[in-house]
Design a protein that fits this description.
This protein is mainly α and 69 residues long. The protein has one domain. It contains three helices and no strands.
């Protein structure tokens, strides 16, 4: 993580960087659709990596659905 801080040129302590990551709006979706799209993108990336770590995978597909309000 400290290498990432150096790579991005962040000025401040490790705790400051964590606070920045937790509070800066650029790291959060603007609306529910954006959140669903990001979750679907992450799930698809994971799908490609799963066979590398697991010998048997479930055949039943899964989906991403919004959480009720």
């Amino acid at each position: 993580m400290e290498q990432v801080i150096k790579d991005v040129g962040f000025k401040g302590s490790f705790a400051d960087f964590l606070m920045f990551l937790r509070t800066d709006p650029q790291f959060y979706p603007k609306n529910a659709d954006e959140l669903l799209k990001e979750a679907a993108f992450i799930a698809k990336k994971a799908d490609a990596m799963l066979p590398k770590y697991f010998g048997k995978l479930p055949r039943t597909p899964y989906g991403i659905a919004p959480v009720p309000a």
